[in-house]
Amino acid sequence: MAGRFTPTRDWRAPGPLDLRLVLGPLRRGPADPTFRITPDGAVWRACRTPDGPGTLRVAASHGADGGGGSGGGGAVRAAAWGPGADWLLHQLPHLLGESDAPEAFEPRHRLVAATARRRPGLRLTQTGLVLESLIPSILEQKVTTDEAYRAWRLLVRKYGEPAPGPASASASASVSVPDGMYVMPAPGTWRMIPSWEWHRAGVDNKRASTILRAVRVARRLEEAATMPPGEAQARLERVPGIGPWTSAETVQRSHGAPDAVTVGDLHLPGIVGYALTGARDADDTAMLDLLKPYEGQRHRAARLILLSGRIPPRRTPKMPRVDIAQL
């Protein structure tokens, strides 16, 4: 690490690296206040680390294709600010997929193989943070993504704290934190959110109560980051309201778990079935059967299927949006 005022770190991935593909799953909608991709291709994250709030900027190093592209490079430079800066820079290789082993993946279908060839820079991120993926996953239970993204955005902006780092008004800063970035609330702050503010954000009592139960045992849940993915999921699912869908969505990000396939999803079984067989009515059982050849890598296979773009044409209306804040 170097830098007199701003801690930095240079790192090179062991293979191709596409920052947008690797870190994209961490963004909860285009206006996520904790995540931003700036016009120069840099990815910014505002996080609550074990050492406190921190902001991380990651960009391809000059002369290397390590950012928005998926070429043969993989060199990046990262900078961080705030009490969590050192933690974020220490975690950087894991965040960018150093612990992942995409070369071990063996495509069993032509579509999957073609997508893997087109996306050589895909690696599975491992954030080492549980709550930052768990809470937005709970918000996404049984509602449209737009509703969940809106709730996350409103609650983080109102109860989080501004991302640490140089502001755009600072004339001495070579880079500045993008406007409107926030670190998500601390566990104690989530517990203090009034019931009417959950309601105003469109979050029903069931999801709000699940989040409140989770943050009460935040330390125990964050400990799950050091467990194998299966054990981590089991710990998360001890919290009432957290089931296999939510725990899988969490460990996919916190652990970079290649086999944590999402079950109970409204759309994924149909997408997998359509992509691999042309049948659009697959259920979880059929999806798991189709993914059986990828045992140990089922999440990666599903991710590649989603990236293939082969999605069944919509024949039913989208899930209706119910704005409970208007009730």
Q: Could you characterize what this model shows?
A:
- There is one protein chain.
- By secondary structure, the protein is of the alpha+beta class.
- The chain has a domain at 268-308.
- It has 14 helices and 7 strands.
- Strands 1-5-4-3-2 form a 5-stranded antiparallel β-sheet.
- A hairpin with a 5-residue loop joins β2 (35-37) and β3.
- The relative contact order is 0.13.
Question: What layout of secondary structure does this protein have?
Answer:
Layout (H helix, E strand, L loop, with lengths): L7 E5 L6 H5 L11 E3 L5 E7 L2 E9 L14 E7 L3 H11 L14 H9 L12 H9 L5 H15 L1 E2 L19 E2 L3 H6 L2 H6 L4 H12 L1 H6 L5 H8 L7 H11 L13 H10 L6 H7 L7 H11 L19
Antiparallel strand pairs: 1-5, 2-3, 3-4, 4-5, 6-7
Helix pairs in contact: 3-14, 4-8, 4-11, 10-11, 12-13, 12-14
Q: In brief, what are we looking at here?
A:
The chain is built from 14 helices and seven strands.
Largest sheet: 5 strands, antiparallel
Low-confidence stretches: 64-72
Range of helix content:
25-40%
Instruction: Give the number of DSSP strands.
Output: 7
User: So how many helices?
Assistant: 14
Q: What topology, given as strand order, has the largest sheet?
A: 1-5-4-3-2
Class derived from helix and strand content: alpha+beta
Compressed to H and E, one letter per element, the order equals: EHEEEEHHHHEEHHHHHHHHH
From the N-terminal CA to the C-terminal CA, the straight-line distance is: 53 Å
Envelope shape: globular
Radius of gyration: 20 Å
- Beta percentage is 5-15%
Q: Let me know the average pLDDT.
A: 92
